[in-house]
Amino acid sequence: MNIPGQKKKIRPDGPDKVTGNLKYLTDLTFPNMLYGKIVRSALPHAEILSISTDEAVKLPGVQAVVTYQDVPGFNGFGIIFPDQPVLCKNRVRYLGDALAAVAADTEEIAEQALQLIKVDYKPLPVVDCPEDALRPNAPRLHPDGNILHHAHYQKGEVDQSFQDCSVIVEETYELPRQMHAYMETEGGVIVPEPNGKLTVYVGTQHGFKDRFQLARILNMPETDIRVVSSPMGGSFGGKDELNIQPYGALLALATNRPVKIHQSRQESVRAGLKRHPMKITMKTGVDKQGNLRAHKVKIIADTGAYATLGPAVLDFAVEHAPGPYMIPHIEIEGFSVFTNNGVAGEFRGFGGNQITFALEGQMDRLAEKLQIDPIEFRQKNLRKANDPGPLGQRIAPTNGALEVLQAIKQSHSEEALVWKAAPTEKWKKRGTGIAVTMHGGGLGVDRVDPAGGRLSFSKEGKIEVAFGFEECGQGLLGVIEALVMKEFACEASDIRMVIGDTALVPVSGSSTASRATSMVWHALERMKDSFRTQLFELTQLVTGISADQLEMGPGGIWRRGEATTSTLCVSFSELAEKMPNGRSIHVHTSFNFPTSPDATVGGSHFLYAFAAVMAHVEVDLLTGKVKVCALDQAVAAGPVVTPLGYRGQIEGGGVMALGYTLMEEAKMEEGIYLTDNFDSYWIPTICDVPYQMNVEAIEKLIEGDPFGPRGVGEIGTVAVAPAIARAIYDATGCWVKKLPVSPEFLLKSISLGEMKPWM
Amino acid sequence: MTGQTKGRGTLKSFTISLTINGEEKMVPVMASDTLLFVIRHHLGLTGAKPSCLNGDCGACTVHIDGRPMKSCLMLAVEAAGKKVTTIEGLQGTPIQQAFIEKFAFQCGYCTPGFIMNCQALVEKHPDADDQTIKEWLSSNICRCTSYAEIEEAVKSVLKKK
User: What is the pLDDT of residues A199-223, one digit of tens each?
Assistant: First the structure.
């Protein structure tokens, strides 16, 4: 990726990450620390008749055993509806449900104690698919029934307008349960402080939200809880919800000693969130001229046993069901359904990946039926700069959809045709495919979505910049550093960044929804002038040089126009030393993520990023194996803040989506995972990735756009699957409607006729 | 192995001598302790990471007499008498610098393991071709990057050699 004018930078966390010096929160140890373990349910659905911890408590080395009786506050958690018991009392609804937790001197003793905890269950019928859960006679999994959330949107007269369509495609797409598979499983240390307070060193994507939920569970004031939430060994949405924090906290309070819990991979698979499996039926019609007329969508999402962000994920899928296309008649209906399967929740792409696979599948099938080039067909129907958003709401004007399509069209060149015609073996076939998507940033309208930040001039003479965000690996520290350096023309060494610690940072909202980069930029825009003015006033006081003659630069304050050419007026450290007692410089801002002024559907968005993907595949007709040879992405998300970080998000996201398309499925049977580790859940290795990946960043925004960089944490994962699916069709003539694409399916479906091409 | 010390739980432990990053250390271990456990818990070296504890991901990779080894798959007692190098024993190598320059990490959790593997590759196969690089690197998993950056880092070091 080549972005002119960008100085190459290193990531601030680089040196500590390549030397092993960086302490992840699961690396921490404290004096007197105990080890915690959690008893999870043996059955996917059962009544609890009794829980006996007597034997476990007697085991030497066991310091505490807690059950539901030991939860001092509210026994439940969940970001939207707190319907998941911290510790179950009379019923379990999935294998990840917790029944008890143990703190012991060593991990082995804690493990041994788990075996001594006796739970009597009365098994209940297992509801293992949403269709069954929706039957009238299905067991009720929650007091309000089995529908967690029903979402509906309608515009025009959809059924009637199908009559005016000359071509209609109807298809049902099936999407799998994908695992986040962050390399660092959930864990950390919870430390009781001498003053009765609690410090929680556990990774999460929203420290303040964890603090709120923990306060409710522990019946403690929020201000008595400090959450240190960063750094993390990956999250991708999976650590957004509470995981082990409540258990560690209960045990730490029971023993008054630090308690470490670090889940094994098996425990993580069993209890952790996954991407929602969805079945999506779409009926889409076009008129004779190839204009999209009608689009009817039904989504059924398997949300598993508890809510977490299930409702919001469904809303997102509903919102993005028309995607970037202008369709006059639309009806979308979605159901997020409880089952006894693993809990599905927040995962990079947030319902967009599922719906985009279906939507782009429709576009490709329609283009094929119409005998129109798929790019041309899309171009004809894509939104223009001032068109409304997918659900008719006003959005920030953007021409991103057409720009990314145009960019990918150029890479879809004649070279590709030559490549396509020359497979390496006679029994291999090559094909190409493209797909387009738009993806909303932020939590959307009618959601609590605060942002904010703080700029201070520290006693040590550093520009201290603080945000309530987390470094999950996405490169947020690099983004903050780059934006501050650019704004104040200073050096990295002039900056001190503070994130991921509720004791030190302001409220910035969550490090989710592709929002952090965007909100850092917005916050700095709001704070920069005041901060600069106060610094210049202080400089004037200290040096006598008039404030209007000054500018900021490397190492300190310079005379305007002379930065780096003459000598410093005053260095930052000298300025700090000479700062009069009692004087300080702190600028604080708080605001909300921008939302649409006229949106009628909760959660719908205002700022969007766009991507177009081109995939080249080679399909082995003997084995059914698909090799993705090239995966190019064009992304329109505003200015690039850190070029290599941006590329990493798009390419890394692309490979995660390649896994989703071809390899990954956390299968369950009767509520039981058929996988528990990376030997049976395969994610891409270096051997699976394309040998060509180009990322083209379209940085230009509509003239006068005041919203700056959009986040790119998710967009690189969204449109990959449909592009690969279309490339498989191009190679084999076989439409894919279910992911992951298995070799068995392809071998069965590819019609070779009488002639074997290699004979 | 020498002397019997207090065990953990009902299990007995022994003291063995391990050569870690050039230093000889006397470490209490149980026969069943993995090398990864001992490095992290007894020696306090947390660069090698637990992730799958199953030999699939390579986050715990260290060097045993210069060869990359997944320390979750090796018992600590097997390492007695051998030279163990962890990421903490690797200072200022070109591969570490290359990882920084090429953005060959994001969350960084897999990075120490990757670097240990890459360093061994660079030492054993200074003229490695693409196929060799892919074979070696396929023993480690990274969930954040596309591996392209890691491959670029390795190649940039090989080129300089």
Answer: 999 999 999 999 999 999 999 999 9
Residue B10: predicted pLDDT: 57
pLDDT given at position B3: 41
Amino acid identity of A142? H
What are the chain A neighbours of B112 within 8 Å (beta carbons)? Answer: 18, 20
Which whole-number Å values give the CA distances from B110 to A23, B34, B51, in the listed order? Answer: 13, 19, 9
If you measure CA to CA, which chain A residue comes closest to B137? A686
Length of chain B: 161
Instruction: Count up the domains in chain B and report the number.
Output: 2
Domain of B123 in residue numbering reads as 94-160
Helix A245-255 to helix A207-218 angle, to the nearest 10 degrees?
Answer: 50
In this predicted structure, the answer to whether residue A498 has a pLDDT above a threshold of 70 is yes
CATH number at residue B47: 3.10.20.30
What distance in Å separates the CA atoms of residue A265 and residue B41, rounded to the nearest whole number?
19
**What is the 3-state composition of chain B as percent helix, strand, coil, each rounded to the nearest 5?**
35, 20, 45
Mutation for A interface: B107, B136, B154, most A CBs within 10 A: B107
Kindly write down the DSSP assignment for every residue of A622-678, as one continuous string.
TT--EEEEEEEEEEE-SS-SSHHHHHHHHHHHHHHHHHHHHT----EETTEES--ST
Chain A residues closer than 8 Å to B150 by CB: 686
Last residue of a domain, one of B69, B87, B105: B87
d(CA A439, CA A609) in angstroms, rounded, equals: 5
Domain end (from B87, B112, B143): B87
Please state, in angstroms and rounded to a whole number, the distance separating the CA atoms of residues A323 and A336: 20
Rg (CA), chain B: 16
The packing angle between helices B148-160 and B130-137, to 10°, is 130
Number of cross-chain residue pairs from A and B with Cβ atoms under 8 Å apart: 163
Residue numbers in B near A13 (CB within 8 A): 108
- Residue B101, judged by CB atoms within 10 A of its CB (0-12, 13-18, 19+), counts as middle
Mean pLDDT of chain A: 96
Whether A7 has a pLDDT exceeding 60, the answer reads no
Position of tokens 């909202």?
Answer: A509
Pair type for strands A329-338 and A292-304: parallel
Residue B6 shares a structural domain with residue B83: yes
The DSSP secondary-structure symbol of A275 reads P
Q: Are A610 and A482 in contact (CB under 8 A)?
A: no
Q: Do A19 and B47 touch (CB under 8 A)?
A: yes
Q: Is A656 in CB contact (< 8 Å) with chain B?
A: yes
Contacts of A679 in chain B (CB under 8 A): 52, 54, 56
Number of H helices, E strands in chain B: 5, 6
Q: SS3 of A99, please?
A: strand
| Lookup: tokens for A108 | 């082995």
Tokens of A435: 């797909």
Does A1 score more than 50 pLDDT? no
Sign of CA dihedral A249, A251, A256, A258: negative
Residue B94 tokens, joined: 């070109």
Same domain for B79 and B155?
no
pLDDT (0 to 100) of residue A285: 98
Lateral strand order in the sheet of A695-698: A428-440, A608-620, A626-636, A695-698
Within 10 Å of residue A704's Cβ, how many Cβ atoms? Answer: 6
